[in-house]
Design a protein that fits this description.
The chain has a domain of 104 residues. 87% of the residues lie in helices and 0% in strands. The chain is built from 3 helices and no strands.
C-alpha cells in the first residue's frame, strides 16, 4: 500500500509542478508588454538623457548627478513591477500554504484517502485564481507607468 501511496504522491507532485510552471509562464506572457516598455522605451529615454549629460563644460559631479537623475524613471518603474510581483507571489504562497495545511490536517484524520486529490484540487484552484488576477495587475502597472493601450 505504501508503494501505491508514494507513486500517487509522485504523480500528483509532478502535476503540481506543471501547474506552477503554468502560473510562471502566464505571468511572463502577460507582463511582456510592461517589460518591453521598461526595457526599450524607458531604457532608450534613459540612454538619450544620459548621453546629453556628457558635456565638457560640466564637472564630473554634475555629470554623475545628471546621469543619476536620468535613471530615476527606469528605476522607479522596475521597483514598481518588482513590488507588484512580490505581492502577487506572496498572495499565491499564502494560498498554497493554506492548501498544504489542509493536506497535513487531513493526513492526521483517520479514513482520509483522498487527501492528495484534495491537495491537488486546492493548489489548482489557488493557481487558477492567481492567474485570473494577472490582467488587472498588468492594467494597474500600465496605468502607473503611463502606458497607452497600444503599447
Amino acid at each position: 500500500m505504501n508503494h501505491i501511496g508514494n507513486a500517487e504522491e509522485q504523480i500528483v507532485t509532478e502535476r503540481l509542478r506543471r501547474k506552477l510552471n503554468e502560473v510562471n509562464s502566464s505571468a511572463q506572457q502577460q507582463l511582456s508588454g510592461v517589460q518591453d516598455h521598461i526595457n526599450f522605451t524607458l531604457q532608450k529615454a534613459y540612454f538619450k538623457c544620459a548621453y546629453s549629460c556628457f558635456d565638457r563644460s560640466r564637472t564630473q559631479d554634475e555629470i554623475s548627478n545628471c546621469v543619476e537623475h536620468c535613471s530615476v524613471p527606469v528605476m522607479q518603474s522596475q521597483n514598481l513591477v518588482e513590488g507588484e510581483m512580490a505581492k502577487f507571489q506572496e498572495r499565491l504562497q499564502r494560498a498554497l500554504m493554506v492548501c498544504q495545511d489542509k493536506y497535513e490536517s487531513s493526513k492526521l484524520q483517520p479514513g482520509q484517502s483522498k487527501s492528495m486529490t484534495d491537495l491537488e484540487s486546492c493548489v489548482n484552484q489557488s493557481i487558477d485564481d492567481s492567474i485570473k488576477t494577472l490582467p488587472s495587475l498588468v492594467d494597474r502597472l500600465k496605468t502607473s507607468l503611463g502606458m497607452n493601450d497600444s503599447t
